[in-house]
Write a structure and sequence with these properties.
This protein has helices spanning 2-5, 48-54, 98-103, 133-145, 161-172, 188-195, 216-224, 239-242, 245-257, 272-278, 327-340, 345-354, 381-393, 414-425, 438-449, 463-473, and strands at residues 10-14, 20-24, 46-47, 58-61, 67-68, 71-72, 83-85, 108-112, 126-130, 152-156, 178-180, 204-208, 228-231, 264-268, 285-290, 297-304, 309-313, 316-320, 363-367, 370-374, 400-405, 432-436, 457-460, 479-483. The chain is an alpha/beta fold. It has 3 domains: 2-27 and 149-354, UDP-N-acetylmuramoyl-L-alanine:D-glutamate ligase, CATH 3.40.1190; 46-140, MurE/MurF, N-terminal domain (Udp-n-acetylmuramoylalanyl-d-glutamate--2,6- Diaminopimelate Ligase, Chain: A, domain 1, 3-Layer(aba) Sandwich); 363-494, Mur ligase, C-terminal domain (Protein-Tyrosine Phosphatase, Chain A, Alpha-Beta Complex), CATH 3.90.190.
């Protein structure tokens, strides 16, 4: 990483007099774009000899193409002059679409030497042989990332990754040209494709890192070479693979261990497991955010309604277009990181007001006289209780109906975690409970055993069955919250 480190400039800066921050000086942290003997290249161009070297491949066929404008793994979306990498997946194999990619104008094709490939009638593209095309994609992304000495900020955590990433990219965009991964493209393929979109114009990148197996965050961090790492929280997610929350912490913390210079971490001071890490000596500069415990950026005077949440950070009044108070943590993380990069507080306030939450993240919609709160993007115990806390606090002129789907990938403790939620639901301000799936069914049974009105509990096996139940029960002024793991497809209930 020597090319990157030599271009960084760090200067002291104060944020409200709380703590000296190594704020990024963009006058000295300049982009470094390597030029080869092939001469000046177009923006985001890839030179054939560079690509062969980066992917450790063998050039089988040369072509009149020498420079390529981008990279794609989708033959349907390939643009003329781009590189097509034939990725093999569980449901598709890009090697079956090489001829189509060439017909659409691909300038270079990267294929596995272990696959049979139909080229087509006319060969107009360069062909590179590699051992493994996924590894080639990752290697090319890492090589391309090293060409840019711009700050890369990576976000991970059990909950709130996408929202924090979207918030921070918007806040930084008030001052800089920012690259981000779209949606939740947070695995090795999505991250690599995002990095391959880096251009000379970009001044920063904000990237989300996801994981459900040990070692994934370390691999993703080594691809992205982040300089700033944000961990939103540590919760009981993907316990099927991580065992317990300490396993989750170990996996997420590898982001901080892999940080490149100047190694800045932004961490949740209210998270019990992260709090232990914050107290340990380290060569990483740590900044904290929180509501309960003392932190560098703290939220005060938090109020919420069905439409918005308001809070104060220092002397700044901020507003989010969501009733979920848990989003205050996401806002704090984004605020703190933006201030490290010297974004003006006024611009941050305006950006928060304009921020639109990603789909199915506690979004309130009005349908035929009743209110729907769509929080169906995903679910684990921590995010479920956060949603339930907000739902409890909301005022409703009608009944409150909870549609709960299974929480998946929780391992051996999945059944007991659902039963615990059911017992807690018996004390919640919920008038009707609809469970979707066998695990949600256990929560429903535990709720009834703990005093929830059994005549107001329904258990079904699919979102379609839940749709029929809801359509027969819902009345004017009711408020419905839907919350479950992606595989339960709860969003289908209201399509």
């Amino acid at each position: 990483m020597e090319e990157l480190e030599s271009s960084f400039g760090v200067s002291g800066a104060l944020d409200g007099g709380v703590k000296i921050a190594p704020a990024v000086s963009f006058t000295s942290w300049k982009r470094s774009y390597r030029e080869k003997e092939e001469g000046p290249r177009a923006e985001n161009d890839f030179i054939l000899s560079d690509v062969v070297e980066a992917v450790k491949g063998e050039l089988l066929v040369k072509s009149f193409h020498n420079g390529f404008s981008g990279v794609s793994i989708d033959s349907r979306a390939i643009k003329k002059g781009e590189i097509f990498i034939a990725i093999s997946g569980n449901r598709f194999d890009g090697h079956n679409f090489v001829a189509e990619a060439i017909a659409r104008g691909a300038g270079c094709i990267i294929v596995s030497k272990h696959k049979a490939v139909f080229i087509g009638d006319q060969l107009s593209a360069a062909i590179i042989w590699v051992e493994d095309t996924l590894s080639a994609l990752i290697s090319l992304a890492y090589w391309h990332r090293k060409r840019f000495a711009i700050p890369v900020i990576c976000v991970t955590g059990s909950n709130g990754k996408t929202t924090t990433k979207e918030m921070l990219s918007l806040l930084l965009s008030a001052k800089y040209k920012v690259l981000k991964n779209e949606g939740s493209q947070n695995n090795s393929i999505g991250l690599s494709l995002t990095l391959l979109k880096l251009k000379k114009a970009h001044e920063a990148a904000v990237l989300e890192l996801g994981t459900n197996h040990f070692g994934e965050i370390k691999e993703l961090a080594r691809i992205a070479a982040p300089n700033v790492g944000i961990i939103t929280n540590i919760g009981p997610a993907h316990l099927e693979f991580f065992g317990d929350e300490k396993g989750v912490l170990r996996e997420k913390w590898s982001l901080i261990e892999e940080l490149a210079f100047p190694r800045i971490a932004v961490l949740n001071a209210d998270d019990d497991l992260l709090k232990e890490k914050i107290a340990l000596p380290t060569d990483v500069t740590v900044f904290t955010f929180g509501i309960k415990n003392k932190a560098d950026w703290m939220a005060k005077k938090i109020t919420s309604s069905l439409k918005k949440t308001s809070f104060m950070i220092k002397n700044f009044s901020l507003e989010l277009d969501s009733p979920a108070k848990v989003n205050v943590y996401n806002g704090l993380a984004a605020f703190g990181a933006a201030r490290i990069f010297s974004v003006d507080a006024y611009d941050i306030i305006q950006s928060f007001r304009a921020f639109k939450f990603p789909d199915s993240r506690f979004q309130t919609k009005r349908l035929d006289g009743f209110k729907l709160i769509d929080d169906a993007y995903n679910s684990n115990p921590a995010s479920f209780f956060g949603a339930l806390e907000t739902f409890n606090a909301l005022k409703s002129h009608g009944r409150k109906i909870l549609v709960m789907g299974d929480m998946l990938e929780l391992g051996f403790g999945a059944e007991e975690l659902h039963r615990k939620i059911g017992r807690d639901l018996s004390r919640a301000r919920v008038d009707m409970l609809i469970g979707v799936g066998p695990l949600a069914g256990l929560a429903c049974e535990a709720a009834k055993a703990s005093g929830f009105n059994p005549r107001a509990v329904y258990v079904c096996g699919s979102s379609q069955e839940a749709r029929n139940i809801v359509s027969g029960l819902v009345r004017k002024n009711d408020t419905i919250l839907i919350k479950g793991s992606r595989a339960t497809r709860l969003e289908e209930i209201f399509k």
